[in-house]
DNA sequence: AACCTGGGCAACCGCCGTCGA
DNA sequence: CTCGACGGCGGTTGCCCAGGT
């Protein structure tokens, strides 16, 4: 704070880069590596600030960047990871190694966000907007929301742990590469240094973990009873850390859980409501064609990503270490990635789409489709967990 | 042909976390 | 422990261009 902007210096150029500038930057980095970004412009003969050079390099000039249209799988990955991680573009970018966080962010803001909105899905919460209109009794609502929160955070914990592990691995491998490559740039290396944010980058934070712990610590002091958490706080910001009300501990079914421990969340579904959005958009050929080609009765495809209607069973205390170990044991097959994802996101969820008359079905009482819905939900989120637990390099989609 | 408008994207801005002196 | 330098991140801006009027 109070620090002067890096480009305050008079004479430094701003705005679009010229081919000559690109060439200078490229040539310098290829020869010397970027080293200190602040010192680079002078050495490379550029009238730019170091930050501008870094951005130009990471977002445009880097040789391992894949440009052009996002394919369907990339879109799905972005959507699902966004559901987990929120606007943490760099984290999302780690699963799309050839895409920059900036590119993903732009694509989200200009395409995917609008698409989800048109489908009736809140792009922030990834919930159907119809949810807000459904009225259910207070307790079940609280329970559902608590479950929502718990599952959400569980998935995010997994993702966070995954990032920790990946960054460690990357740091390790990069140390190896450093011995044989120019600093800061590894031309021709088989495995790219990753996206913008993956270059030996430590995870940004484990704020979720911390919050969870904090919340749980608080809860241990509380009555451990009701479902009184502040729903809005939890639900409205997938990117935020958790907020627990003073007297409203998250409810864990299990008995005592030690301080600083986290209870394992298990996806145990119940019947419940259906929240859907319907894709009926002209011109969304990829999505639409998929729906047509599969076993769908019509063009209606619902994209259900809710976390409702799950109950959680807190079975055993766990901690970040156990979580990490748990992640290590997860192996995701190619089929899961290729079929499960597409299927779950586009086809599977379509089976619970709304009817064309737009009338939402009433599932509050747990209709006969509830168990299927539960299965779908479980599979959906398991697939996301699989995604975040799979190494990008292992993923067949890359 | 000229003008308007909206979409897409590169780049900038400001804040934050980390690290070393 | 403090402070400054630095890099990274997410939000936002503004330019460019294509399509419409």
From TrEMBL:
Gene Ontology terms: biological process: cell morphogenesis; regulation of cutin biosynthetic process
InterPro entries reported for this sequence: Homeodomain-like_sf, Myb_dom, Myb_TF_plants, SANT/Myb
Region annotation Disordered: where it falls in the sequence: 172-202, 352-373
SUPFAM superfamilies per record: Homeodomain-like
Entry keyword set: Developmental protein, DNA-binding, Nucleus, Repeat, Transcription, Transcription regulation
GO terms for MF: DNA binding
Domain of life: Eukaryota
UniProt keyword annotation of DNA-binding present: yes
Localization terms from the record: Nucleus
Residue intervals of the Myb-like domain: 9-61, 62-112
Biased composition regions of type Basic and acidic residues, renumbered to the chain: 352-363
Pfam family, one: Myb_DNA-binding
HTH myb-type domain: residues covered: 9-61, 62-116
UniProt biased composition (Low complexity): 182-198
S-adenosyl-L-methionine among keywords: no
GO cellular component: nucleus
Biased composition (Polar residues): 172-181
PANTHER family on file: MYB FAMILY TRANSCRIPTION FACTOR, TRANSCRIPTION FACTOR MYB16
Protein name as annotated: Transcription factor MYB16
Highest classification ranks of the organism: Eukaryota, Viridiplantae, Streptophyta, Embryophyta, Tracheophyta
């Amino acid at each position: 704070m109070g620090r002067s902007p890096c480009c305050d210096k008079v004479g430094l150029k701003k705005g679009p880069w010229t081919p000559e500038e690109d060439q200078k930057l490229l040539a310098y980095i290829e020869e010397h590596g970027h080293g200190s970004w602040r010192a680079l412009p002078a050495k490379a003969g550029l009238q730019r600030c170091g930050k501008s050079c870094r951005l130009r390099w990471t977002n445009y000039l880097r040789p391992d960047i894949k440009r052009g249209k996002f394919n369907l799988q990339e879109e799905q990955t972005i959507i699902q990871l966004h559901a987990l991680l929120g606007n943490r573009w760099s984290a999302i970018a780690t699963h799309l190694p050839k895409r920059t966080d900036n590119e993903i962010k732009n694509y989200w803001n200009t395409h995917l966000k609008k698409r989800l909105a048109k489908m009736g899905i809140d792009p922030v919460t990834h919930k159907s907007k119809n949810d807000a209109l459904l009225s259910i009794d207070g307790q079940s609502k609280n329970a559902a929301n608590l479950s929502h929160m718990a599952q959400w955070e569980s998935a995010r914990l997994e993702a966070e742990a995954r990032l920790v592990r990946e960054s460690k691995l990357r740091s390790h491998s990069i140390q190896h590469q450093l011995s044989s490559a120019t600093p800061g740039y590894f031309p021709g290396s088989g495995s790219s240094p990753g996206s913008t944010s993956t270059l030996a980058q430590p995870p940004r934070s484990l704020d979720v973990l911390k919050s969870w712990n904090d919340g749980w610590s608080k809860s241990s002091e509380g009555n451990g009873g009701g479902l009184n958490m502040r729903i809005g706080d939890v639900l409205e910001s997938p990117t935020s850390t958790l907020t627990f009300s003073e007297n409203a501990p998250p409810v864990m079914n299990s008995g005592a859980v030690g301080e600083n421990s986290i209870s394992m969340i298990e996806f145990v579904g119940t019947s419940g409501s259906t929240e859907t959005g319907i894709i009926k958009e002209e011109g969304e050929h990829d999505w639409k064609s998929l729906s047509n080609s599969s076993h769908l009765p019509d063009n209606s495809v619902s994209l259900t990503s809710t976390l409702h209607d799950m109950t959680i069973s807190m079975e055993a205390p766990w901690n970040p270490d156990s979580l990490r170990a748990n992640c290590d044991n997860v192996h995701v097959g190619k089929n899961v990635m290729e079929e499960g994802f597409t299927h779950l996101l586009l086809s599977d969820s379509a089976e619970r789409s709304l009817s064309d008359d737009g009338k939402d079905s009433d599932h509050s009482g747990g209709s006969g489709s509830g168990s299927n819905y539960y299965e779908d939900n479980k599979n959906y989120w398991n697939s996301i967990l699989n995604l975040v637990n799979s190494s990008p390099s292992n993923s067949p989609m890359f």
